[in-house]
Write a structure and sequence with these properties.
The complex is a heterodimer. Chain A has seven helices and eight strands. By secondary structure, chain A is an alpha+beta fold. Chain A has a two-stranded antiparallel ribbon with strand order 1-8. Chain A has a two-stranded antiparallel ribbon with strand order 2-3. In chain A, a hairpin with a 6-residue loop joins strand 4 and strand 5. Chain A starts with a strand and ends with a helix. Chain B has seven helices and eight strands; from the N terminus they run βααββαββαββααβα. The radius of gyration of chain B is 18 Å and the shape is globular. In chain B, a hairpin with a 6-residue loop joins strand 6 and strand 7. By secondary structure, chain B is α+β, with helices and mostly antiparallel strands. In chain B, the strands form four sheets. Chain B has a two-stranded antiparallel sheet with strand order 1-8. Chain B has a two-stranded antiparallel sheet with strand order 2-3. Classes of the chains: A alpha+beta, B alpha+beta. Chains A and B meet through strand 2, strand 3, helix 4 and strand 6 of A and strand 1 and helix 7 of B.
Chain lengths: 174, 172
């Protein structure tokens, strides 16, 4: 099983909404675009692209370590399998009280249109189990979404900052 | 009448209990506050302001989608008609068995002093039909209680997150 989290590089996002589409398709019954269009109830997406002026950014569940949603859930419908696992939802336990929607600071939990429960990003856990990337990450055309373990992402960020420092340094020495 | 639900901003609540008074008057036969004020002891509110250390929060029915009270009611007196709509008690069908009181995870159902039926927040369904917001929402002096649809509420949060991100990171 692949391990990691979805990291968002907002400056690369074009707001093309491909991630929303592929998310909805991968959470449909058929997992195919053209079949899922006619499915009833319609498949819903769990990642949202919002635009403010020229800025846009996709947002999905951050799978927080100290999850506020997990703390307020009265029926323990939201849970974690283990320390590294994403925050998952048991729709049978969920009573749809919407407390998690209130508590979430990112506004990424929605109400399901078919079941009497909420829905949220599950990090495509079924795809991870067969060593595939989450649907939003593999479909993003500009690689604004990356799926990496935390250690690797910090390494990339460190290399980026060294490169940035080097550029400043070399421009000064000229 | 669009779907919506009640959102509370905990840091704005002063525990002034105006929402409780507004709620009690809205659910009484008195429509004028002056008449109601002298009979306040006989009126019942359906929103409860609870205080814990420095925090206070008004609590009312969450109008759960898969509500435990709807499931357990033996006479089908409690029903939810639509998604994002209120859970409503039909007081004439209620036999006062108090099972809903026991199963509610939020403790927001109470007993009517006169009819002994269960009562709870109905999202001021009559006021919503007239195009008004629920009594607790319009009465709150600090706007700690808001009536807003879920999609709208989520969108506001996401926009705030994106704004903060670009303020810190800046567009390259």
């Amino acid at each position: 099983m692949k391990k990691g989290f979805v990291f968002i590089y907002g400056d690369k996002c074009l707001a093309c909404k491909t991630c929303e589409l592929s998310c909805a398709v991968s959470h449909s019954n058929s997992k195919e675009l053209f079949k899922s269009i006619n499915e009833m109830p319609k498949s819903q997406y769990r990642i949202n692209v919002d635009t403010i002026g020229e800025f846009s950014m996709p947002l999905n569940c951050r799978h927080c370590k100290e999850s506020p949603c997990l703390k307020v859930c009265p029926t323990s419908a939201l849970f974690r399998e283990n320390e590294d696992s994403p925050v998952l939802l048991d729709p049978d336990k969920c009573i749809g009280c919407k407390y998690c929607i209130l508590a979430c600071p990112f506004g990424v939990i929605k109400l399901s249109s078919s079941k009497k429960a909420v829905i949220k990003c599950d990090l495509c856990i079924e795809r991870l189990k067969i060593d595939e990337l989450p649907a939003c990450v593999s479909s993003c055309p500009t690689k604004a979404l990356k799926f990496k373990p935390v250690e690797e992402i910090t390494e990339i960020d460190r290399k980026d900052s060294i490169e940035y420092e080097w550029r400043i340094h070399s421009s000064r020495s000229k | 009448m669009s779907g919506g639900y009640i959102v509370v901003e905990v840091n704005k609540c002063l525990a002034c209990k105006t929402c409780e008074i507004e709620c009690a008057i809205a659910h009484s036969e008195f429509k004028d506050k002056k008449d109601a004020v002298f009979k306040l002891h006989s009126l019942q509110h359906r929103v409860f302001v609870e205080k814990m250390k420095e925090f206070s929060i008004p609590l009312q029915c969450r109008h759960c989608e898969d509500a435990p009270c709807v499931k357990i009611c033996p006479t089908k007196a409690i029903e939810k008609r639509e998604i994002e709509g209120p859970v409503v008690i039909n007081e004439s069908l209620c036999i006062g068995c108090k099972r809903c009181l026991l199963i509610c995870p939020f403790g927001v159902i109470s007993i009517n002093h006169q009819s002994r039926a269960s009562i709870k927040c109905d999202l001021c369904i009559g006021r919503l039909k007239e195009g008004l917001s629920p009594a607790c929402v319009s009465g709150c002096p600090t706007k700690a209680i808001k009536y807003i649809s879920i999609d709208e509420y989520n969108k506001l949060k996401r926009r705030r997150v994106i704004k903060e991100y670009y303020e810190r990171v800046g567009k390259k």
